[in-house]
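Example 3.
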Amino acid sequence: MRSVKTSLTGIKPTNTPHLGNYLGAIRPALKLAETYRSLYFIADYHALTTMRDPAALQESIYDVAATWLAAGLDPNQTILFRQSAVPEVFELSWVLSCLLATGQLERGHSYKDALAKGDVPNAGVFYYPVLMAADILLYDTDVVPVGKDQKQHVELCRDVAQRVNHVFGEDTLVVPEVHVGDAPLVPGIDGEKMSKSRGNGIPLFAPAKKLRKVVMSIKTGSESLEEPKEPEGSTVYQLCKQVSPEAAEAMATELRKGGYGWGHAKQALFEALEAELGPRRDVYQAMRADTPALDRILDQGADRARAIAHKTIGRVRHAVGISATSSADLKKTVRLKPQVG
Ligand code: TYM
């Protein structure tokens, strides 16, 4: 019986993390890290499904690492590492892929979205959820804090873990739970889902002047200053509700009264963001500038992550019948069940 439960999540280094990443994953993950064993990693191999510029990928890896640290991750407590530093993840992903029906991957929303847009997705986009499941299962994860857009991937991970356990023995893999808040996906400045690829993000640690400019560009209604306004449904209010519920409540009261314009609401959102993130801006800049320190933290994290991964992969090899152990030992230790389906 494991006494401490594990929380794990990953961020793809495809750009500098934005407010959606922070509210959807980073902030809840740091809260969980207070009580769970925590492993938070940079999903660099996942980024290869889209990234084609090695220098930009390297820079984004450091951006993500510095973001976690500036947001409050304590590297002595939380294991922060690069996905690529633990190649056992590919070994596990192969085992998982042998237990997944291709139809499950065909239903993956990223793959389906790519097809719907008329793109010809690479095989990495198709296989993406398998690697993500391996990321989670390799570290005996109990809980995965992610934004709503990743829920389907964690559900697929649960399915395949249950199937592995059914076929090879109930104690082979830990079946994780997804941890998503009630809040909807964080909207971007255009009101659509905030996303790195859409370019509608609110930066976390940009200079205050730049941040204010981005906040002031959020799309709003065109009512006059005097008119009372309905906050629900407006992007600026949605964002504020997720950053600071208290500030959002005050904003809603003012908007409904009238004599308070969307410009005032945006200023209130900017101030709420400054209160949450402003004090960490200098920490981000200092961490981001010190790449040797980031490498040290990531390498130390990788050593700790590898130790956990070795145990899991050993257990999996044993369970499936691929192991250096003699067949006599295997018979004693592994409960082989007939394969179904
Ligand atoms: P990525 O890099 O796209 O996003 C990182 C995290 O940010 C969340 N997120 C959002 N949450 C709310 N509103 C938004 N607008 C928003 N945009 C992004 C995402 O849900 C995610 O939690 N596949 C993952 C990376 C990954 C992973 C894993 C995560 C790889 N392996 C294993 C958990 C466990 C991804 O692309 O995240």
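The chain has two domains: 6-185+290-332, 208-287. The first strand starts at residue 6 and ends at 11.
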